[in-house]
Structure of Membrane protein:
Amino acid sequence: MSAADPVLLRERLSPSAPVVLVAAALGAVFGVILVPLSLIAAVVVAVVLAVAAAVGVVLLSPEVVVARSELRAGPASIDPALLGAPEVLDREAWELAMGQDFEPLAYHCTRGWMHGGVRVPVLDPEDPAPAWVIASRRPEQLALALDAARRA
C-alpha cells in the first residue's frame, strides 16, 4: 500500500474493556506465586504483569485496512480485484460462520470478543482459500469499503 493509495477503512480489532480487565487480572495472578518468597516482589510482579497483559492484548490486536489496491487483515493482504461481493454477517450469521458453517480453508481474521463481520469470496482460482472471514465492529462499513475498493 503506497502513500498515494487512499485508505477507505481502518479498524483495529482491539478488545473491549472487560477483556482487557480479565487479561490484567490473569497477569496479576502470577504475582501470587511469589508471596511465599517476598510480599513486595509479589506485588511488584503482579502490577508489572497486569499492566503488560493489558497493554499487550491491545497492542497485539490485528488491524483491518481497506485501500483501493489492498485489503489487509492482520498479517495477510490481498488485491480487492480478486474478491467477490462481501456478505455482511450479523450476530446470528457470525455464530453460524464460526460454528457449524466454519470453513477451515478460508482465511480468518477473527477475535472471540467480536460478534459480527464479513465473508468475502476469493475469485482467484490459484488461491487455496475460498474466502476471507473478517471480524468487524462495523461490518456494513467494511462491506461498503470493500465494494468501493473492488470497483476502483
The mean pLDDT is 93. DSSP finds four helices and eight strands in the chain. The first strand starts at residue 7 and ends at 12.
